[in-house]
């Protein structure tokens, strides 16, 4: 009787340095798709996506709150610095007026106390002189956000400038106290003040958005911005009246009015104190500010695709 026995097949020998793992022989794979997808950034001048900005509006207000909270964090005086800075500058300009014997400004034939005159110019100038450099450095100071998360990049210079509108509220309150001390009643034209505040913000963003892109690409601009602010302060009627220039040299006044803050600051005094308004200077400065604003937005949008490469 012949007994049936199972045949045992021995496994293949294992070579030195190899393990008994999966079969190393290549497997058949699906053929690659004949269609190739190529992603390219759009070129040319791109429009502003206002719908996207509106969709991210909560983030915009959060960034403003973050910047406001961080400005005076771990300071003894806190938000009092928003009041002290324009007051100190007012005292410095008043001292210079005494030393340099600057004539007392007049409005409709009546003398205006110099603190009242100069503080009216310091209110918008403080927003511009701090908001514009803040916008210019906004991309450099937030490089870590440019490469990690997506959001409308325009929020960075916008929030950097909008933060100083909070300081303007404090300054307007202090100015109301100064007017009460000197017993000066604002003119009814003060109702147009919100339009001038809007023009101040537009001019600040116009210059700030252009410099924000340039500062990210060329870091030399972060050292040039303070010189630009200092130059514009002397070219802007902050501590002097624009009429002292335009009265004797009208052509020089038209050139200086290309500065977007020249006619705007003079208009602040006009609507608050009832002084004569230089409509031509305001028109030129407002047009200059609007042109810078529109160009700044489109230039920022055009260069936005390269931000991550320089961050």
UniProtKB/TrEMBL annotation:
Residues 77-303 form the ABC transmembrane type-2 domain. GO terms for biological process: lipopolysaccharide transport. Residues 1-34 are annotated as: Disordered. Its main location: membrane. The chain crosses the membrane at residues 80-100, 112-134, 154-178, 190-218, 224-242, 254-275, 281-300. InterPro entries: ABC2_TM, ABC2_TM_bact-type. Keywords: Cell inner membrane, Cell membrane, Membrane, Plasmid, Transmembrane, Transmembrane helix, Transport. The keyword Magnesium does not apply. One of its GO terms (cellular component) is plasma membrane. It holds the Pfam family ABC2_membrane. It comes from the Bacteria. One of its GO terms (molecular function) is ABC-type transporter activity. It is a multi-pass membrane protein. It is found in: Cell inner membrane; Cell membrane. Belongs to the ABC-2 integral membrane protein family. This is Transport permease protein. The gene is tagG.
């Amino acid at each position: 009787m012949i007994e049936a026995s199972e045949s045992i097949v021995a496994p293949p020998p294992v070579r030195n340095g190899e393990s008994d793992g999966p079969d190393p022989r290549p497997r058949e794979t699906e053929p690659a798709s004949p269609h190739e997808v190529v992603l390219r950034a759009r070129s040319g001048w791109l429009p502003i996506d206002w719908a996207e900005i509106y969709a991210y509006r909560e983030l915009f207000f959060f960034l403003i709150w973050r910047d406001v909270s961080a400005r005076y964090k771990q300071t003894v005086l806190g938000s009092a610095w928003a009041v002290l800075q324009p007051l100190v500058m007012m005292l410095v300009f008043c001292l210079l007026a005494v030393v340099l014997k600057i004539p007392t400004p007049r409005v409709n034939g009546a003398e205006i106390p110099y603190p009242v005159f100069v503080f009216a110019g310091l209110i918008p100038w403080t927003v511009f002189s701090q908001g514009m450099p803040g916008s210019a450095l906004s991309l450099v100071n937030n490089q870590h956000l440019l490469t990690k998360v997506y959001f409308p990049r325009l929020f960075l210079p916008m929030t950097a400038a909008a933060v100083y509108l909070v300081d303007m509220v404090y300054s307007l309150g202090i100015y109301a106290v100064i007017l009460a001390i000197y017993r000066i009643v604002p003119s009814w034209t003060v109702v147009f003040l919100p339009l001038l505040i809007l023009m101040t913000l537009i001019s600040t963003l116009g210059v700030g958005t252009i410099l924000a892109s340039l500062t990210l690409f060329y870091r030399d601009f972060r050292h040039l911005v303070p010189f630009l602010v200092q130059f514009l302060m002397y070219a802007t009627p902050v501590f002097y009246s624009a009429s002292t220039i335009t009265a004797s040299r009208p052509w020089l006044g038209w050139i200086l009015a290309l500065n977007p803050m020249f006619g705007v600051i003079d208009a602040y005094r006009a609507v608050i104190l009832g002084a004569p308004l230089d409509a031509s200077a305001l028109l030129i400065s407002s047009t200059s500010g609007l042109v810078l604003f529109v160009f700044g937005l489109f230039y920022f949008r055009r260069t936005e695709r390269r931000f991550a490469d320089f961050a």
